[in-house]
């Protein structure tokens, strides 16, 4: 279905690649290294935008600028192809404008017989990425400039290069479209949560409380008042215990959707005594107790539709919700809202890791309407979650398709025309 909607124009049978030629990339393009203006020449709002490796590899949002003479900088435009060679080697991007750091290289063609867009996709192939990894070295910071002379590939003629680019660009555009849709849906959900947790669904008057504006009939309660049992940290599991046994929810599993995704869980071999103590139940909430990143602490998800016994990590806190008082999805959505996230992050403490303990979590206050209104709000948010899930599944299809065709088209297994 997706292949038809993307309107490809390719031969589906493998053909020979006798007409393809092998080239080293340094023979057909320059890898222009960026510069380092120096800390004294950086600022937050004036001059030329300075693009660091972290900007392209991790999406760092705080921009950096430099007032240094542009003649001493390596400037780039959105259409330029960039590749990182230090820190996180092998990240290939476009769309940046400014001056690049020394950890980034700008690709400049030496010949008109080659297409820059083709090079952009070529650098993303597994074969070239493997070469970059093979020649990367360093303990705290990786450096991969030694890989540049070793980057080589087979090239079709210019016409076929352009045909390959057309096909891959079509899929890439579809991926970007899905990513934008998902981002908009998530923004919509945050906006809805802000409205619903402030005004409810009955249209009643609001009142000001210690946590902000809420409907007049709502209560303000601490999390621990909604729990049917004491909060509990999970099981301590050593590395050698992974691989078989019971499903195991870890910190990394908290950063997906509202519900715990059992398909992504590892398995651990623990005793029956431990599984009996740390077994999860339907409707439980899990909160991240310890996180390497401050904004990752106290992330929350809901346990539902258990098909087998599942346990959880010691860096998580389990909260058993009393169903006569609250609906787990309502509680979880509140603590996943921007207001809820800020509150829990403020309650955390940071040393080498950021942590929130059971007392800090349990004393956090939240709004509480009737069960009926909780259900109405949870159902409204669930409908958006379903749309997000469908969009993410479609995105996964496009991403897998891109990966497959990138390999097949760049290796000549499949020919574009």
Give a nutshell description of this structure.
The protein has 417 residues and is an alpha+beta fold. It has helices spanning 2-5, 25-28, 53-57, 116-122, 126-134, 158-199, 272-278, 328-336, 338-346, 358-362, 371-411, and strands at residues 21-24, 29-33, 42-43, 48-51, 64-66, 75-76, 81-84, 86-87, 92-93, 98-100, 104-109, 142-143, 152-155, 206-209, 212-215, 219-222, 232-233, 242-249, 266-268, 285-288, 290-291, 300-302, 310-312, 316-319, 349-350, 354-355, 365-368.
Structure description:
With 417 residues, the chain is α+β, with helices and mostly antiparallel strands. Helices cover 34% and strands 22% of the residues. It contains 11 helices and 27 strands. The strands form 9 sheets. It has a 5-stranded mixed sheet with strand order 3-5-4-10-6. Strand 25 (349-350) and strand 26 form a beta hairpin. The longest helix has 42 residues, at 158-199. It is elongated. The model is unreliable at 1-16 (pLDDT under 50).
């Amino acid at each position: 279905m997706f292949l038809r909607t993307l309107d490809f124009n390719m031969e589906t049978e493998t053909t020979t690649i006798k007409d393809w030629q092998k080239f080293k990339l340094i023979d057909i393009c320059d890898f222009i290294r960026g510069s380092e203006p120096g800390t004294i020449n950086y600022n937050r709002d004036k001059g030329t935008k300075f693009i660091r490796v972290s900007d392209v590899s991790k999406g760092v949002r705080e921009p950096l600028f430099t007032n240094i003479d542009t003649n001493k900088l390596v400037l780039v435009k959105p259409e330029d192809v960039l590749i990182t060679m230090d820190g996180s080697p092998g990240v290939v991007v476009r769309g940046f404008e400014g001056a690049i750091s020394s950890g980034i290289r700008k690709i400049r063609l030496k010949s008109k017989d080659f297409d820059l867009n083709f090079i952009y996709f070529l650098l993303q192939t597994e074969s070239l990425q493997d070469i970059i990894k093979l020649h990367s070295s360093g303990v705290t910071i990786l450096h991969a400039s030694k890989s540049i002379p070793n980057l080589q590939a087979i090239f079709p003629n210019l016409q076929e290069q352009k045909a390959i680019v057309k096909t891959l660009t079509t899929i890439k555009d579809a991926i970007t479209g899905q990513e934008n849709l998902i981002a908009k849906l998530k923004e919509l959900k945050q906006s809805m949560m802000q409205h619903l947790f402030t005004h409810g669904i009955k249209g009643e008057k609001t009142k000001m409380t210690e946590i902000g504006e809420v409907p007049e009939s709502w209560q303000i309660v601490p999390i621990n008042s909604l729990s049917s049992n004491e909060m509990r940290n999970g099981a301590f599991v050593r590395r050698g215990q992974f691989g078989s046994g019971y499903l195991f929810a870890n910190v990394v599993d908290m950063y997906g959707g509202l519900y715990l995704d059992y398909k992504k869980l590892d398995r651990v071999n623990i005793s029956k005594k431990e599984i009996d103590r740390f077994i999860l139940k339907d409707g439980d909430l899990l909160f991240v107790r310890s996180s390497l990143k401050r904004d990752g602490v106290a992330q929350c998800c809901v346990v539902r539709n258990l098909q087998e016994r599942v346990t959880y990590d010691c860096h998580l806190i389990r909260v058993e919700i009393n169903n006569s008082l609250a609906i787990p999805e309502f509680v979880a959505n509140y603590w996943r809202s921007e207001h809820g996230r800020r509150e829990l992050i403020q309650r955390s403490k940071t040393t080498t890791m950021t942590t929130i303990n059971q007392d800090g979590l349990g004393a956090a206050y939240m709004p509480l309407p009737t069960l009926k209104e909780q259900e109405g709000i949870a159902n409204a948010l669930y409908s958006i979650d379903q749309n997000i899930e469908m969009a993410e599944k479609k995105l996964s299809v496009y991403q897998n398709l891109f990966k497959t065709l990138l390999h097949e088209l760049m290796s000549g297994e499949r020919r574009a025309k």
